[in-house]
Recover the amino acids of this structure.
């Protein structure tokens, strides 16, 4: 099935990670593919260390800079395409049951990947895999075909009080 | 700080679990306290197996039946109180940095714990710990004092099409 976590609130990536962990607890292999990310957050470090690429694997496909309009170049597109290629391999693999496409919604929103291409790939495997797409601004084309859609709505966030991203919490 | 994940959508518990994993990846100890739950879901099994109560621990305080009005008895209250006692111990512990009070919002909503008691306990530790409350129907008294509040809004869910909870996905 196709799952979407979108919206401006906290908890999208962590929900994807938590879902991977839950599935792994029942013996299903999970692959987490982090688009637009190159900084190794807490989840990256611990998953690599504890699972060693077995029950859960995590890999990053980001150029290292924050995606904002006017700041996007070929390197970002190449990384996104490499991420999607890796995702397709994971979808084809018999071992992998859960595929988390972390931040792919943002990548689609900025046009680094074509919505139709991603739709075609995930539609092909939706009956046998759990495909989880996270990130703000999920395009309507994806929402339409998804089975689960949760909008994480920000009600309160300390960033608004000037508090910066904190280690272990935001990354 | 105090974090709340509430709303009717999927991803509240998994966001709490994912946050615990992220924090552990930076060396912070996390305690997950599952209120109103007695079935050992995927996250329970894998956390106990992989972390053995060290970097992340998870414990359950539920009577084994689903909380619905008219179906609540002393056993549920005792379990909720035992969960809160355990939570207080975790909050007092120097080692533990992140405390996930999974489904506590529901427990508060049904009056199994007093809102003022929980508010008093979490307020005492909010400056030095990350306290994460999950579950539908979070009472206003908690929302008011929280730093982060995310409402997980259900946009689409296959339950509406008659699909039942699936192993590795919903539990």
């Amino acid at each position: 099935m196709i799952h979407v976590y979108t919206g401006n609130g906290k908890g999208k990536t962590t929900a994807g990670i938590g879902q991977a962990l839950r599935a792994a607890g029942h013996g299903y292999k999970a692959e987490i593919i982090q688009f637009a990310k190159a900084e190794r957050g807490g989840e990256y470090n611990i998953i690599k260390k504890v699972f060693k690429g077995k029950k859960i694997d995590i890999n990053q496909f980001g150029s290292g800079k924050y995606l904002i309009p006017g700041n996007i170049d070929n390197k970002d597109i190449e990384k996104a395409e490499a991420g999607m290629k890796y995702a397709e391999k994971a979808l084809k693999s018999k071992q992998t049951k859960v595929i988390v496409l972390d931040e792919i919604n943002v990548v689609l929103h900025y046009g680094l990947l074509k919505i139709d291409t991603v739709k075609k790939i995930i539609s092909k495997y939706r009956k046998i895999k759990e495909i989880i797409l996270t990130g703000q601004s999920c395009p309507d084309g994806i929402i339409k075909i998804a089975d689960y859609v949760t909008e994480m709505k920000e009600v309160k966030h300390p960033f608004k009080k000037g508090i910066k991203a904190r280690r272990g919490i935001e990354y």
